[in-house]
Specification:
Layout (H helix, E strand, L loop, with lengths): L3 H20 L9 H8 L3 H9 L2 H11 L4 E6 L1 H5 L11 H10 L1 E2 L30 E5 L2 E5 L4 E10 L3 E6 L6 H4 L45 H22 L1
Parallel strand pairs: 1-6
Antiparallel strand pairs: 1-2, 3-4, 4-5, 5-6
The structure holds 2-acetamido-2-deoxy-beta-D-glucopyranose (4 copies).
One 2-acetamido-2-deoxy-beta-D-glucopyranose (NAG) binds next to loops.
InterPro entries: FAS1_dom_sf, FAS1_domain, FLA_A
Protein name: FAS1 domain-containing protein
Function: May be a cell surface adhesion protein.
Length: about 250
């Protein structure tokens, strides 16, 4: 009769060999937003802006450190080209940063999750999640429209999606109302006056960001990454151990 212990280690060895082959090529380091956009092509202006504002680094470190997920609306080069000339240069460096962050949602939305998203969506623009730079979506079937109050556009393509990050192509730059809204009649809402009496009037709907996280549970997106493979292996190892034990 075969020695069950030897049999057990035999199976383990076999599994390790399989796992080394299956897992090794999968995760090539954390996701790099610049690489994702470079690979997609036609996003050179957005990449430049992401780099100039150092948002690219921030995105990459967020992807590496948190599991909350991100959604990015990436305007094409053509979208930037059709802006009225001087649009980007008409705003300060600080506002350019807000503009870039306006294209980023601090939550993962799959295309179908937009259907149940409640407007306005929070963006990463603004000093905190206070709804100063809101963005609305409307959906119909697979179509997702985005509106800022200044610009209406449609998600025209999914460039990238995993269980942490979704990058969608938009064919217009999302110009936030706070920066490009009403013509300069009175004092623009954007410039914070030196002393404002009601400073604590913050959107009451704001959940404490960070703690409540309903985003990751819906991450059953495209899951051909190391974790799913590992999960399958754990099951396989447990099965193998149970089989070996039953031989004793
Ligand atoms: C991301 O990719 C870009 C270009 O492919 C590269 O220059 C940059 O160093 C990468 N960043 C990280 C954190 O790997
Ligand atoms: C990702 O995070 C880990 C752990 O915090 C860190 O050691 C590693 O250097 C980070 N990698 C990148 C590319 O930032
Ligand atoms: C999205 O926008 C297009 C073009 O403006 C429009 O025809 C369509 O009805 C919109 N769909 C939704 C769901 O708002
Ligand atoms: C966005 O949606 C909110 C809530 O429905 C609404 O109050 C607001 O007017 C909308 N803004 C735009 C620009 O569509």
């Amino acid at each position: 009769m075969a020695n069950p212990v030897i049999h057990f280690f035999g199976i383990l060895f076999l599994l390790q060999t399989i796992s080394a082959q299956t897992i090794a090529p999968a995760p090539a380091g954390p996701t790099n937003i610049t690489k994702v956009l470079e690979k997609a092509g036609q996003f050179t202006t957005f990449i430049k802006l992401l780099k100039a504002t150092q948002v690219a680094d921030r995105i990459n470190s967020q992807l590496n450190n948190s599991n909350q997920g991100l959604t990015i609306f990436a305007p094409t080069d053509n979208a930037f080209a059709t802006l009225k000339s001087g649009t980007l240069n008409s705003i300060s460096t600080q506002d350019q940063l807000q503009l870039v962050q306006f294209h980023i949602l601090p939550t993962l939305y799959t295309m179908s999750q937009f259907q149940t998203a409640s407007n306005p969506l929070h963006t990463q623009a603004g000093s905190s999640d206070d709804g100063q730079y809101p963005l609305n979506v409307t959906t119909s079937g697979n179509q997702v429209n985005v509106t800022t109050g200044v610009v209406d556009t449609t998600v025209s393509n999914t460039i990238y999606s995993d269980n942490q990050l979704a990058v969608y192509q938009v064919d217009q730059v999302l110009l936030p109302l706070a920066l490009f809204g009403a013509p300069p009649t009175a004092a623009p809402a954007e410039a914070p006056a030196p002393s404002k009496p009601e400073k604590n009037v913050r959107a009451a709907s704001d959940a404490p960001s960070g703690s409540s996280d309903s985003s990751t549970d819906a991450s059953n997106a495209v899951a051909v990454n190391g974790y799913t493979v590992k999960g399958a292996l754990v099951v396989a190892v447990i099965t193998a151990i149970m089989m070996s034990v039953s031989w004793l």
